[in-house]
Structures are given as C-alpha cells and as structure tokens.
Amino acid sequence: MYQTEELSFKIHQYERIAETNTLRVSILTLTKGQEVPWHSHSNVNDDFFCMEGPMQIELRDPDRIQLLQPGETWRVIAGQPHRVRGINGNPCRFMLIQGVGKYDFVQE
Q: 56 and 84 in contact (C-beta within 8 Å)?
C-alpha cells in the first residue's frame, strides 16, 4: 500500500515519473476496492490515460461517469470535483498528467 502526507488515501502503487513547479506526471495502480476519493484541484487539469482497466472517472456539477478503456484518455478541468476507480471496484492502472499550474488536492 502507498500512502504519504501528499496522498491522504491508500492505493496499491504510486510512481512519480516527472515533476516541475507547474507539471506532474504519475502512474497510479488501484487494486480491487480502491479509489482516488472525491476531490478537485484549484489550478490544474487532470489528464488521464488508461493503461489497464477499464476505469471510470465520476464527476459532479454536472454529474457524469466517464468510462475509459486501455489506450483512452480524458481530461478533468480545474475546479471539477471527481473521483477515480476501476469499473465495479475492479483494479485499474493509469497515467495522470497534472498541470499547468500549482498543484493542490481539495478533498470534497
């Protein structure tokens, strides 16, 4: 399990690929039943690339569920509340590109 002060939730694996003051690239692996909980970012977009899945991104305001198969991408814009998990709680793995701007994690 991976958890740090930066991540207030537990996931199977978290790998930082690259980071600058305004851009982060990471790979997250979620096992059965894990999720990235509801949150938003004040300044950065989240660009998801599904590597293993399928996976789902749930959005609020407006409500929506976006399903991603391996090889598919989706962008969540800054300020949009969202959470991420495998479909029906199953495992998934994805690359996450966050930027351009100062990163924060606003728990919803």
A: yes
Structure tokens at 66: 């976006």
Identify whether the C-beta of residue 36 lies closer than 8 Å to the C-beta of residue 28.
Answer: yes
Element at 83 (helix H, strand E): strand 82-86
Among 27, 25, 30, 26, CA closest to 11:
30
HSE-CB for 101 with a 13 A CA cutoff? 12
Length of the chain: 108
pTM for the full predicted model: 0.90
* 99 sits in which H/E element: strand 92-99
Instruction: Find tokens 């962008």 and name the residue.
Output: 75
Beta pairing class for 73-76 and 106-107:
unpaired
Domains of the chain listed by start with CATH number: 13-107 (2.60.120.10)
Extract the tokens encoding 106.
């606003």
Q: pLDDT digit string (tens) for 45-93?
A: 999 999 999 999 999 988 999 999 999 999 999 999 999 999 998 999 9
